[in-house]
Amino acid sequence: MLHDILRHSVTRVGVVLLVLAPPVHAHQYWLSPSNYSPAPGELVDVRAYSGTGFRGEAKRWSPARCVEFSTFSYRAFSLSTLVREDSLVWARSAFSDPAGTWLQYQSNHASIELPAAEFDAYLETEGLTGPLAERRRAPREGAVRERYRRCAKVWFAGRDERRATRALGQPLELVPLSAPGASPVLRLRVLWLGRPLAGATVKAWRQPWGTGGGTRAIEDRDSVGAAQRERSDARGEVSLDVAAPGEWLVSTVHMVPSTDRAAADWESTWASLTFGRRESAAGARRGMSAPSDTRVSEGVGSRRDQRVP
Question: Could you give the CA distance from residue 77 to residue 100 in angstroms, rounded to a whole number?
């Protein structure tokens, strides 16, 4: 009898995990600094992660995958030749320009193959309605070949709003219309090849600050559900409620038929933006607490991401 009880309990848990877990390939990718608002001269470590629920696996530096890795403050400066191959720390620098600094990474394409049913589930999860409709109009059996690339950037807080709202020229880019983290609402424009992209699904996650108000170590995080999910309007714009303090990740993905049909059927580009928001003085005086994020049962340890940097 005990054996039967345990067997049925494990079965129920397994069913719950299968329901809650997103497709293995629908993972976010982001840059994570040790401090989003460093003091003058303070050295900051920057790592890259891939995972779900704003919890992930650290990615090692691969020069073969890099198209661009650079900072932009009063001028652009390339960092790609300064990183040791296979390093988990992608940058260590004093990103403390009082006007603010961008750090961005762009990768080239990598390839995966997915069974047709898994690929369609991934399209539905990520809100990729155009490719999904096209596949339903002309269903195909067999594996689907996809090429994908990454566009990630992080904002180190500063006072120059013109700098914070500058587009960096990424193929797919989340461009703030105000300084990220400076106000409780963040309005963004999604750009595809420099032009506004309507109908893009934009999702946001939040992780609370760690001990001492710094970025929480990846091993101390819980996977969290997306705090928001919005679609860009005709101007490519979305508004996000980012009033709660903590580390924020905003992400979107765009997919088009592959330009090289011999190599793949589809091409996807993933864009992310990370920034920090501190609790307002007014909120601190009133003793306001941030709303708790929804916990989910999946995490980085459930299944490995098929996509690499």
Answer: 14
Q: Is 234 helix (H, G, I), strand (E, B) or coil?
A: coil
* Residue 231 belongs to some domain of the structure: yes
Strand 172-176 with 55-59, pairing: unpaired
Phi-psi region at 133: left, alpha or beta (left = phi > 0; alpha = psi -120 to 50): alpha
Q: Where residue 209 falls among pLDDT bands split at 50, 70, 90?
A: very high
Q: What confidence tens digit (pLDDT) does each residue in 48-98 have?
A: 999 999 999 999 999 999 999 999 999 999 999 999 999 999 999 999 899
Q: 81 in a domain, yes or no?
A: yes
**Inside any domain, residue 138:** yes
- Rounded CA Rg of the chain: 20
Strand pairing of 144-156 and 266-277?
parallel
DSSP labels, 136-169: HHS---S-EEEEEEEEEEEEE--S-HHHHT----
Domain total for the chain?
A: 1
Q: Which residue has the tokens 């390839």?
A: 111
Write out the residue range of the structural domain in which residue 46 sits. Answer: 25-286
How are beta strands 144-156 and 185-192 bridged, if at all?
unpaired
For the chain, the first-to-last Cα distance in angstroms comes to: 48
pTM confidence score: 0.84
Residues 171-190: tens digit of each pLDDT: 999 999 999 999 999 999 99
262 part of a folded domain: yes
The answer to whether 27 touches 52, Cβ cutoff 8 Å, is yes
